[in-house]
Design goal:
Helix content is 34%, strand content 9%. The protein is an alpha/beta fold. The protein has a 6-stranded mixed sheet with strand order 8-7-6-5-9-10. The protein has a 4-stranded antiparallel sheet with strand order 1-3-2-4. Strand 9, helix 13 and strand 10 form a beta-alpha-beta unit. The longest helix is centred in the C-terminal third of the chain and has 35 residues. 31% of the residues are buried. It comes from Ramalina farinacea. GO terms for molecular function: nucleic acid binding. InterPro entries: Gfd2/YDR514C-like, Gfd2/YDR514C-like_C, RNaseH-like_sf, RNaseH_sf.
């Protein structure tokens, strides 16, 4: 190792371990006093550096913003574990490859990139000092290597595992807590919006200013005024009398359409059942909900469609399928062909919204053409009523929406869909639970009876019942969980010596209190995006994050280049044993002094003084032409004028919506980085992904 020079390739077949993962080993894989003792003896207080390590680096080739990965030869790590085992009489093995796949990494594939030598980590050097000496990728200081494209996919997977192995598993606690509170706020807001749709919570009368009492007001009057404010703001809800109609107007007069789709357990591409249940809020006007919402539940209109081509398929291994057991109280099963499924489903999202008697049942045991199955009476479903606002309902709604897209019907393309409500989320907001409950368990908790679950029609009906029951039950303060954790749970946690579990219960209760104490009406609905627009939105967000990382990483690269090519004699040249200078004409003296074209060596290395690198806003560490194409701003795409994007102002930094007008690296003016340009709006089609969208997705993946 002593004879290696910076940039020299490691020998073929040598195994390595990520430096970051090795330094965290005693804290991750040892516990209690042993972890502390091993840390004190071999890792903490400079003990790790004092041992001395050979440090290698490798360019990850994941993206231009990822800094090189630092590695330690596996043989040196093995010796460390051996010494730890001898010193403490414990078994100190490498982590299991299943638990931590990136802790041990080899480079045995032909044509795969290999690590390069960086230097020795000792008491006299720090890992930061070594990182600053990493040569730029492809520079003359790095030994040439042969890399084949066919090996890069496996190589990148190894790099991702190795990087993940060295990451801190416990992010900032405060930020993590705020993230959890934000998620819980979203759940609570969805429940409040659902209550607004059902007329159980007032919409749009929220005043967020706290009540300010009149100093001349009596204590009793002040209390009444405070209570009136809390009710108006949605912080406190008055008792609900279920024998009376809904106390507020039905927000947006929506139609709830609950969807449940069943697929064959051995092949999810084969959709076997579609269940749809409709609840029209116009049917609930002046109708009391009744005990537990029983009267409202009678207004549901349910449909159960079975796919004729897959009538022989039944789930038995993972769930107990019962496609032939649609409950009579909800209706009768109807047979359709798979080709008809998109159109039949679409009719349920139009007036008259799942009215019965519009289809002729199709007996699968007769030898008639599948195309004749359940013929549509178009004269009965066309031209009736007006378009209404629709709210999609489901239990794990996203999965059912994806199944509908799979058969060719994308509800995200409907402009009158207000949002999608998930009853699994509603129950968590109601009970202040974090774990997702199955539909059967929720029915049991709410006192509802569910027969023959995993029948798509039954599940859609029961999910709609759960929606009604949760919205009513959550308004009763006696049904809501207390903000302080039950003492019984605390005692059990203490008896089990689970102090962390006890603290987590307290924190969980505090988070729910912070999430649910604001009141309000739940805010604006969160609309669904068509499949194509949703993918474009994800691409834009990903490009935005890449740009922010690139802005920071560019400064590091500039500092590194300046370190090698600044005021170190003749230029960017490097030398071993002497100075090669900028023209490699310097004498090979005793050190690494920088010579001019024919300048002499020197007594030692003369590092360039560290200066703040100049900003080069036109320098982008990724292929901008590819980004243009990926984001739809290439030839024929985007709003451009005279070959560039018009700028309305100059703002600084990646976080601003408009970037500064900088020099175009290809010669133009008014240059705007691709990831900051406006998104291209696309029109999605039901169940269809255009060839242009597929090409754009492939191109952006190749770019990264």
């Amino acid at each position: 190792m002593a004879q290696l020079h910076v940039g020299q390739l490691a020998s073929f077949g040598v195994g390595f371990c990520p430096y970051a993962a090795v330094t965290k080993w005693p804290y991750r894989y040892l516990h209690g006093q042993v972890s502390q003792d091993v840390s004190e003896a071999f890792f903490a207080h400079g003990a790790f550096r004092e041992r001395g390590w050979s440090i290698f680096y490798i360019h990850t080739r994941l993206d231009s913003t990822q800094k090189p990965l630092l590695l330690i030869p596996q043989a040196e790590v093995q010796q460390l574990f051996h010494d730890i085992g001898e010193a403490f009489d414990i078994f100190a093995p490498f982590p299991d490859v299943v638990r931590d796949a990136g802790f041990q990494v080899d480079f045995l594939e032909e044509g795969s990139p290999r690590p390069r030598y960086l230097g020795r980590l000792t008491n006299e050097t720090s890992i930061q000092d070594l990182e600053m000496t990493i040569p730029p990728q492809g520079s003359a200081a790095e030994e040439p290597e042969h890399v084949e494209d066919r090996s890069l996919a496996a190589f990148r997977r190894k790099m991702e595992d190795s990087i993940q192995s060295g990451k801190n598993k416990k992010p900032n606690k405060a930020k993590k807590r705020q993230d959890r509170i934000g998620v819980k706020k979203g759940w609570c807001a969805q429940l409040k919006r659902s209550q607004c749709y059902l007329g159980l919570r007032n919409r749009g009368s929220v005043n967020r200013e706290d009540f300010l009492g009149d100093p001349n007001m009596s204590w009793e009057d002040s209390q009444k005024a405070q209570e009136a404010y809390e009710i108006a703001a949605g912080i406190k809800m008055p008792p609900l009398d279920t024998s009376l109609p809904a106390p507020h107007r039905f927000d947006r007069n929506v139609v709830f359409i609950c969807v449940d789709v069943e697929a064959f357990e051995r092949d999810h591409n084969k959709v076997t059942e579609i269940g749809i249940c409709t609840l029209d809020t116009l049917d609930l006007i002046k109708l009391p909900p009744g005990a537990g919402g029983a009267e409202w539940m009678k207004q549901m209109r349910c449909r159960h469609f079975r796919i004729a081509e897959y009538s022989h398929l039944n789930n038995t291994d993972f769930v107990t399928g019962c496609a032939d057991k649609f409950e009579p109280e909800f209706g009768v099963s109807e047979w359709i062909s798979i080709n008809e499924a998109p159109y039949v489903t679409a009719t349920c999202f139009k007036p008259p919204y799942s009215e019965k008697g519009k289809y002729i049942p199709y007996p699968p045991n007769q030898s008639q053409r599948l195309s004749d199955a359940s013929r549509i009476k178009n004269d009965e479903v066309s031209g009736l009523g007006q378009r209404r606002n629709i709210v999609i309902v489901g239990h794990d709604t996203s999965a059912d929406i994806e199944y509908l897209r799979q058969i060719g019907y994308d509800v995200g393309n409907l402009s009158n869909v207000a949002e999608a409500i998930d009853t699994a989320v509603l129950y968590r907001a109601y009970k202040h639970e974090h774990e997702t409950r199955k539909l059967g368990m929720i029915l049991l908790e709410l006192g509802l009876t569910g027969w023959n679950l995993h029948n798509a029609g039954n599940d859609a009906a029961y999910t709609t019942q759960v929606l009604i029951a949760i919205c009513l039950a959550s308004l009763n303060s006696s049904n809501k969980p207390p903000f302080s954790p039950p003492s019984k749970k605390l005692d059990e946690a203490a008896n089990d010596a689970a102090k962390e579990a006890k603290q987590r219960l307290i924190e969980e209760s505090e988070e729910w209190q912070a999430a649910d104490e604001e009141g309000g009406d739940g805010g604006e609905a969160i609309p669904l995006l068509p499949a194509e627009n949703r993918k474009a939105d994800e691409e834009f967000t990903r490009a935005m994050n890449k740009g922010r990382k690139a802005d920071e990483y560019r400064r590091i690269e500039q500092a590194r280049k300046q370190h090698y090519g600044g005021e170190r004699g003749g230029g960017p040249g490097r030398s071993r044993g002497g100075s090669r200078g900028g023209s490699r004409g310097g004498s090979r003296g005793g050190g690494r002094g920088g010579g001019g074209g024919g300048g002499g060596g020197g007594g030692g290395r003369q590092p360039a003084p560290k200066q703040a690198p100049e900003e080069d806003s036109s320098s982008m560490p990724f292929d901008e032409d590819a980004m243009d194409e990926a984001m739809g701003f290439g030839p024929g795409g985007g709003d451009t004028q005279d070959g560039g994007v018009r700028l309305d102002g100059a703002a600084e930094g990646w976080a601003t919506p408009v970037a500064p007008a900088t020099a175009d690296p290809k010669g133009g003016t008014g240059y705007l980085p691709p990831h900051l340009r406006p998104r291209k709006q696309t029109q999605g089609k039901a169940g269809v992904v255009s060839k242009e969208a597929l090409d754009r997705m492939k191109l952006i993946d190749d770019t990264w």
